[in-house]
Design goal:
The chain is of the alpha+beta class. It is built from three helices and eight strands. Strand 7 (about 145-150) and strand 8 form a beta hairpin. It is globular and about 40 Å long. The two termini are about 25 Å apart. Mean pLDDT is about 80; it is low at about 1-20 and about 165-170.
Length: about 170
């Protein structure tokens, strides 16, 4: 293996270990990649991620990309009852790329949500109206580890990782 490749491999490995070390216990991490659908503004798009409980009640908004155009995220607005985001994670996304959203297990007031079944919902749009969605079921306080989740044609490489004390002790 050429020296350059070996150094790159070592640097990437160390970066991944450092990333694991920074993750607090009990968090749920959702990774995915949106896929372009050739909307009016493609590849630019706005995105929202939020958590609902087993009764479909809004628990917390996890991410909003694109403050000005967040009004186009109709399903997020309906779920939260908001017309404008109360927090913005980042600007309008300029291209479709892998993203990771982390839920620390708390509700919109910063208090720990009870263990149980939840859904992380994703919505994005490349147009002036609601766009594709994806829903991933998670269990707070559930099985630790990583699992691949079936997405759809708009959300690829969907993975859920749940970190707990046992995993943190191994790292």
């Amino acid at each position: 293996m050429p020296r350059y490749c070996l150094l790159t491999f070592v640097a990437l490995s160390l970066a991944l270990l450092a990333q694991d070390a920074k993750l607090p216990l009990g968090v749920i991490e959702l990774s995915f990649q949106t896929q372009a659908y050739k909307g009016k503004y493609s590849p630019r798009h706005v995105l929202a991620a939020w958590v609902v409980d087993a009764k479909d009640q809004h628990v917390r908004t996890l991410a909003i990309y694109g403050k000005k155009q967040a009004k186009r995220l109709g399903r997020w607005r309906k779920a939260t009852g908001k017309k404008k985001p109360d927090a913005v994670t980042g600007a309008t996304l300029r291209k479709h790329k892998p993203l990771t959203i982390v839920w620390d297990g708390t509700d919109k007031n910063g208090k720990p949500a009870p263990d149980g079944n939840y859904k992380i919902r994703l919505e994005y749009t490349e147009t002036n109206r609601s766009g594709p969605t994806c829903q991933v079921e998670v269990k707070k306080g559930g099985t630790l580890g990583t699992r691949k989740v079936e997405g759809n044609k708009f959300f690829a490489d969907v993975t859920v990782r749940q970190v707990g004390e046992k995993q943190a002790e191994r790292n």
